């Protein structure tokens, strides 16, 4: 039995398990369970309606809500319509069901933010059509993964397994592992200034989910490579590195568009450096060479993916997780 190319419709015989890492990611996802309504938006509402935020800060919030609202739904579609169909291992499918639920929670988060702040949902959810740097990122991933949405697609040849790897890298490494992270840094930079703390806390929870998504996706890619070594040619590796280079340029363009004037000592150049830094880590994770050797300009970002904390929403203080206290993520 391998992780792909088994029966797609057999009962989900999850025991005995072969890929224990998939089970571990599932359990970690459950340990981070949350819903947006648990997080108070009162301070955010007051700041949004007052003069507490600059025009640039409001614009940055709107742009990130606009990008993420579309990107999360694209990722959910990919899991349900493409990845689940081709990853036939039961414990891996169990995790994918968990991830699909989390993508629904993330989409619900942006609905909750729009409702709380009195935003026009049509404007937010259609930003990908009107803002070129957002549209370019979405179009890039869609074009990269288009072929495997064919209902007749099968991973029954070297070329088609490579196409499937394209899809996995497109969504797990590029969309969730690179495109999301400048946006995370922007919102969490605001939170560090005690601005839009409710949205910032929700983004922290989303980023913790995404860290697990990324870890699962990289383990999935590496397992397919190990079980199908003929796909991992020098030409294919060079092609993937080229795609990731292009993704970095698109994310840098977005960083400069979304934050053209900087925010209290944090500027677009630093966001671009952060993109280079996390891209090297993504490349290493799937055994590709680093490109940038850039230092991390935001060491505080690692705190936001530390699962040792959860919020006590009645006392607004920090308490410890019971089951995930030792986890550390990239």
Query: At the first level of CATH, what is the class?
Result: Mainly Alpha
SS content category: mainly alpha
Through-space gap between termini: 30 Å
What shape does the CA trace take?
globular
The strand order across the widest sheet is: 1-2
- The percent range for helix content is 55-70%
CATH topology value: Ribonucleotide Reductase, subunit A
Architecture, according to CATH? Orthogonal Bundle
E-strand count = 2
Going by CATH, the homologous superfamily would be Ribonucleotide Reductase, subunit A
The SSE string, one letter per element, is HHHHHHHHHHHEE
Percentage beta strand: under 5%
Mean pLDDT: 90
- Write down the domain tally: 1
Q: Runs with pLDDT <50, length 5+?
A: 307-330
Number of helix segments? 11
List the helices and strands and how they pair.
Blueprint: H1 20-31, H2 42-49, H3 55-86, H4 90-117, H5 121-125, H6 127-130, H7 132-145, H8 158-192, H9 197-227, H10 234-258, H11 268-285, E1 309-312, E2 317-320
Antiparallel strand pairs: 1-2
Helix pairs in contact: 1-4, 1-9, 3-4, 3-8, 4-9, 7-8, 7-10, 8-9, 8-10, 8-11, 10-11
Characterise the protein shown here.
The chain has one domain: Ribonucleotide Reductase, subunit A. It has 330 residues and is mostly helical. It starts with 19 loop residues before the first helix and ends in a 10-residue tail after the last strand. It contains 11 helices and 2 strands, in the order αααααααααααββ. The longest helix has 35 residues, at 158-192.
């Amino acid at each position: 039995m391998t992780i792909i190319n088994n029966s797609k419709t057999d009962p989900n015989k999850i025991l005995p398990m072969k890929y224990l890492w998939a089970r571990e990611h599932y359990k970690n996802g459950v340990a981070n369970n949350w819903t947006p309504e648990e997080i108070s938006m009162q301070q955010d509402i007051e700041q949004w309606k007052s003069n507490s935020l600059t025009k640039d800060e409001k614009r940055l919030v709107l742009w990130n809500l606009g990008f993420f609202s579309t990107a999360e739904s694209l990722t959910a579609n990919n899991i349900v319509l493409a990845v689940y169909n081709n990853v036939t291992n039961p414990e891996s499918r169990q995790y994918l069901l968990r991830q699909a639920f989390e993508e629904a929670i993330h989409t619900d988060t942006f609905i909750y933010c729009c409702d709380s702040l009195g935003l026009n949902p049509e404007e937010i959810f259609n930003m990908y059509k009107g803002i070129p740097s957002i549209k370019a990122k979405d179009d890039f991933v869609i074009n990269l993964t288009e072929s495997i949405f064919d209902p007749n697609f099968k991973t029954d040849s070297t070329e088609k397994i490579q196409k499937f790897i394209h899809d996995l890298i497109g969504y797990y490494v590029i969309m969730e592992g690179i495109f999301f992270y400048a946006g995370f840094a922007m919102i969490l930079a605001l939170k560090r200034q005690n601005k839009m703390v409710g949205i910032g806390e929700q983004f922290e929870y989303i980023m913790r989910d995404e860290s697990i998504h990324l870890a699962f996706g990289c383990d999935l890619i590496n397992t397919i490579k190990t079980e199908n070594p003929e796909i991992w040619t020098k030409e294919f590796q060079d092609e993937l590195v080229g795609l990731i280079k292009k993704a970095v340029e698109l994310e840098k363009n977005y960083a400069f568009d979304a934050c053209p004037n900087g925010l209290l000592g944090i500027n677009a150049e630093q966001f671009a450096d952060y993109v280079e830094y996390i891209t090297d880590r993504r490349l290493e994770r799937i055994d590709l060479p680093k490109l940038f050797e850039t230092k991390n300009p935001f060491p505080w970002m690692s705190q936001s993916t530390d699962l040792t904390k959860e919020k006590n929403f009645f006392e607004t203080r920090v308490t410890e997780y019971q089951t995930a206290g030792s986890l550390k993520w990239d």
